[in-house]
Amino acid sequence: MTTTPILVVGGTGKVGRRVASQLAGLGRSVRAASRSSDIRFDWNDQTTWDSALAGTSGVFIMPNDADDGGQLRAFTERARDAGVQRLVLLSAREYVEMGFTAAITREDIVRESGLDWTVLRPVWFAQNFSEEPFLSVGVDDGTVSISTGAGRHPFIDAEDIAAVAVAALTKDGHVGQIYELTGPRAITVGEAVEAISTASGRSIRFAPTPPDEYAEYLVSRGLYDKETALVVASLAEYIRDGHDEHLSDGVQRALGRQPREFADYVATTVASGTWTTP
User: Fold this and answer.
1) Terminal CA-to-CA distance of the chain, rounded, Å?
2) pTM of the shown model
């Protein structure tokens, strides 16, 4: 596992590119693959799979949310045939707790693959405020509309998710582990927006939106199709109702340290110039 490449599926995404960067920082050979990268990988085009897998020892899997399990099962079989030893799957705590069948099936497929495996279940990323339209567009516009109300959520920094993935791909002691990943404390979206507004010097407000209007808002802004908007709205209501407030200790167990504070993410993002005045 020390000299052969590690494949990062979704290597240009929020987590994948951080996994690739951290692996490279450790001197590891990385094969970052996506539909738009030099090494092409497309879940919907199986002809791209074998060349991406060839000669790799481990794979970080950002799954296709539209997959009910068929794609992932075929992929794990190809990975096993290619000599891959270890799989790390990016799942989600909310998906499992809310009983999303596809997410649960994907986890089962990885666990039953016959390969060493680790499953990561993060909550919402702190980076959603800067990199995911359902929150970042509102930050850019100055008004964040969402139906989370006063519900609290322990946003996890994507850098911490990547660090756990890298540990699972490169070190012993993580095989067969399911890591639920949260930040160190739960905050409301309103508190998050206030922190961003204060640190960036911009006027940004939180606009609580009734649940029955939120999915319509997402579609009307052109952020998501109706089906995806309904999923995002259901997740927001899950937070609003207090179901997603509890902390998990996956970062501590995997890395032996506390997860990053939301304020650290905000400071880093402000320093990068992301939230400049429009």
Assistant:
1) 46
2) 0.96
- For the record, the structure tokens of 204 come out as 């940004």
| DSSP H helices in the chain | 16-25, 49-53, 70-81, 93-97, 101-111, 128-131, 133-141, 158-170, 189-200, 211-220, 226-240, 250-255, 262-271
Distance CA 57, CA 170 (A): 10
Q: How far apart are CA 120 and CA 152, in angstroms?
A: 21
210-268 pLDDT, tens digit each? 988 999 999 999 999 999 999 999 999 999 999 999 999 999 999 999 999 999 999 99
> By CB neighbour count within 10 A (0-12 exposed, 13-18 middle, 19+ buried), where does 151 fall?
buried
Report H helices in 2-147.
Answer: 16-25, 49-53, 70-81, 93-97, 101-111, 128-131, 133-141
Q: For the beta carbon of residue 128, count every other beta carbon within 10 angstroms.
A: 18
All domains of the chain, ordered by start, with CATH? 6-122 (3.40.50.720), 124-156+181-245+256-278 (3.90.25.10)
47 three-state secondary structure: helix
β-strands 143-146, 39-40 pairing: unpaired
Tally of CB atoms within 10 A around 79: 24
Cα–Cα dist 159/80, whole Å? 28
Q: Which of 141, 156, 164 is nearest to 244 (CA)?
A: 156
State both tokens at 3.
């000299």
Paired with 152 in beta bridges are 188
Q: Are 31 and 82 in contact (CB under 8 A)?
A: no
Answer yes or no: is pLDDT of 1 > 60.
no
Pairing of strands 116-122, 86-90: parallel
